[in-house]
Amino acid sequence: MKRILLAATLASASTLSLADFSLISGNIQFHDDPAMSGNNDASMMLEFNHFLVNNIDRGRMRLFGRFDGIKVGEQTEGTKSSNPVVTVGVEQEYYLTDQFWVAAGYHHTMQDGDLISARPLIKAGYFFNDQFEIKHRTRFHIDKTGTKDDDVYTNTFLIYKLSSLPVKLQYNHAKLWEVKSTDHEFQVAWSRKGFQPYIEYRDQKDGETSAFVLGGSIKF
Question: What is the CATH number of the domain that holds 133?
């Protein structure tokens, strides 16, 4: 009887394991349309993340800073250059089960030191098994420049890890609802220990333009 009770206890125990860690990621993007790279040959993105387990039971907080539109190469003749966009943010995750999590957060987006967009968001994700995952984010873009309409930006990710190779496949369906623009992003990553490089193809603005991306991330 004691063995049966012990087995039942172990079976019902949570396998969720959360720990603090940091993640640095970046990429270089080559766009068909130079305007998508800030009128340069290419552009770079750098992002710094720290995830920490906090006092909320089964919760974890994400703190991050991101630099978008770092210019690479020559500027297109006769065009005006722009400085990188900087975003800082915080997100709070909460695991309802070992497989299902939800989150809420806020992104503060700036350029030249001025706030250009306030972006509250909600997220959710589900791990079907060790190989397949789906997650979604809805982010509200509240314009602070007075030159654009507010918008809603959604991302739906499908992620699959191959069982026979250290390879992760990812598809991202990204959409801006107010301007009615949809992107399809296809990524292949080497899910090795240490630095994880990836390549990505982006079909952007409903097929009007595209981009090839080389990037990677490292967790520590």
Answer: 2.40.160.40
